Amino acid sequence: MPVIGFLSGRSPSEAAYALAAFHQGLRQGGFAEGQNVAIEYRWAEGQYDRLPALAADLVHRHVAVIATTGGTQSALAAKAATATIPIVFGTGDDPVKFGLVASLNRPGRNATGVNFLLTGIEAKRVGLLHDLVPTAALIGVLFNPNNSNFETQSRDVQEAAHSIGQQIHVLHASSEPDIHAAFKTFVQMRVQALLVGGDPFFNGRREQIVTLAAHYAIPTIYELREFAAAGGLMSYGTNLPDSYRQIGIYTARILKGEAPADLPVLQPTKFELVINLKTAKALGITIPPGVLAIADEVIE
Q1: Closest to 61 measured CA to CA, from 89, 34, 81, 47
Q2: Does the structure show a pLDDT above 80 at 266?
Q3: Which domain holds residue 81?
Q4: How far is the CA of 100 from the CAs of 4, 59, 110, 233, in angstroms?
């Protein structure tokens, strides 16, 4: 029975819905855990510095393929640990820029996967938040400085805000206490809206972040639908479960003998705008007709 190494920067509890989608993709490819394939799970639980050791452990166990999720750091750790074991990654960053593949169409090495394009659309979120709260004098931005794409995220948001004349203030958080402290600072600064940057660590703390945004009554935009479903005001990004399903499909194809170098990196063609009307009502916000008209899903 072949063994899959599953390496993630996230935690198993909050990523259960995404993991179910990965298993769905495996089943589509003809593999079911415990029947004709085994899976070794390694979770960093938001502590990215643990990933290299976890990846090395999977290599030591001679897994047939490594599926990496929960951030580019997972893929980079696997890539650094082996040049021969096939890797199927999920990343929100540019895999060419980070050296994971030679090109999107022809990966050329032992890795391929799915580019979620999550962090590449921070600028779009700035615009949507501005449309939602056009009178906001100051918008807060929360980023994780440990994210591999932190500098690009910061640049994109700064440029987007400058282009529309929006004043922003960026704070950093890489732990739960940091998140609490950041929200208190945003309140003291009287920010009138908030953008939470795309980051697996934040994904794993979505209940905490959504609760704090509600407690302090700050209109907030997030990267994933799961935030809006948990009570967040608005999200804009890709369908993460579908991307995990694609990772499962690619993993199955490699188990059947295909080479990562021959499988082009997949990218989403559709982005979802989700608005939670119940949260908007609680915040006393009327969603502008133009924003409501382009929403892909409205949660009532």
Answers
A1: 81
A2: yes
A3: 3-117+239-262
A4: 19, 17, 9, 34
Does 177 share its domain with 280?
A: yes
pTM of the model: 0.84
Q: How does strand 87-91 pair with strand 65-69? A: parallel
Distance CA(26)–CA(33), nearest Å, equals 9
Q: How many domains does the structure of the chain reveal? A: 2
SS (H, E, C) 211-266: HHHHHCCCCEEECCHHHHHCCCCEEEECCHHHHHHHHHHHHHHHHCCCCHHHCCCE
Residues 136 and 50 in one domain: no
Within 10 Å of residue 278's Cβ, how many Cβ atoms? 11
Name the one residue in this structure whose structure tokens are 């990215």: 48
The three-state secondary structure class of 5 is: strand
Q: Are 199 and 179 in contact (CB under 8 A)?
A: no
Cα 205 from Cα 11, distance rounded (Å): 10
Q: Are residues 185 and 209 in the same domain?
A: yes
Whether residues 134 and 251 share a domain: the answer is: no
First to last CA, the chain: 46
DSSP code at position 144: -
What is the tens place of the pLDDT at every residue in 97-125?
Answer: 899 999 999 998 899 999 987 666 889 99
Selection from 122, 114, 126 nearest residue 147 by Cα? 122
> Nearest-CA neighbor of 267 among 294, 246, 236, 296?
246
Residue 68 DSSP one-character state: E
Per-residue pLDDT tens over the stretch 247-258: 999 999 999 999
